Amino acid sequence: MGINFANGQQDKESRVLQIKTGVSDSVDSGNETSWTQTGLIDLQFDNAILSDSHVTVMINCSIGEDHNSSWATPMYVTAYCATDGNIGDSTRGICGGWVDFMGRADNWTQYGQQRISGCIQYNPSTTTPRYYLYRKSIASFTRYVGRCANSSSTYNTGRTTMTIIEMGVT
């Protein structure tokens, strides 16, 4: 929602002009080693942003993985803008991590999950940016966003969120 001033103009001097959050309690999974759309988040502002505004994108989600006897093989999540592409790092996105279930590397990993979060600020090339949540893994075994690998609904934590904030700059 934009801030409306009495004179109908936005005073953009280092202010938050709009903020919007998308939330998903669904689950996405896959074993892709290239950036893949999760289908969990599709987010855009209610109003066009100012052409010189910056946008801060924040991501927070739970991740899980199938056991594959590997240590420290991360997965990453990022925000893709429909016009600008991946706005995070080309390799590591906006944030990443892996599941370490009590130091074990066996089938107990199916119950482990980790909460990851990150944010980035940039200047979009359009006044109507639209964002999607993407994921990728550095190893080709199944990863999950929104729950651990165990498929019981008991372990579906959901609450995958993306928040976008338009910041007026001087």
Indicate the overall shape.
Answer: elongated
Order of helices and strands: EEEEEEEEEEE
Biggest β-sheet strands, sense, barrel: 6 strands, antiparallel
Radius of gyration: 18 Å
CATH topology call: Jelly Rolls
Mean pLDDT: 87
β-strand percent reads 35-45%
Continuous helix count? 0
Q: Strand tally, please?
A: 11
Q: Between the first and last Cα atoms, what is the distance in angstroms?
A: 21 Å
What structural class should be given to the helix and strand makeup?
A: mainly beta
Element layout with pairings:
Layout: E1 16-24, E2 28-30, E3 36-44, E4 54-65, E5 75-81, E6 85-86, E7 95-97, E8 114-122, E9 130-137, E10 143-145, E11 160-167
Antiparallel strand pairs: 1-11, 2-10, 3-9, 4-8, 4-10, 4-11, 5-6, 5-7, 5-9
Describe the structure.
There is one protein chain. With 170 residues, this protein is mainly β. The chain has a single domain (28-167), classed as Jelly Rolls (Sandwich), CATH 2.60.120. The protein has no helices and eleven strands. The protein has strands spanning 16-24, 28-30, 36-44, 54-65, 75-81, 85-86, 95-97, 114-122, 130-137, 143-145, 160-167. The strands form two sheets. Strands 1, 2, 4, 8, 10 and 11 form a six-stranded antiparallel sheet that branches. Strand 5 (75-81) and strand 6 form a beta hairpin. The protein starts with 15 loop residues before the first strand and ends with a strand. The model has no long low-confidence stretch (mean pLDDT 87).
Supply database-style keywords.
single chain, six-stranded antiparallel beta sheet, five-stranded antiparallel beta sheet, Jelly Rolls, mainly beta, 170 residues
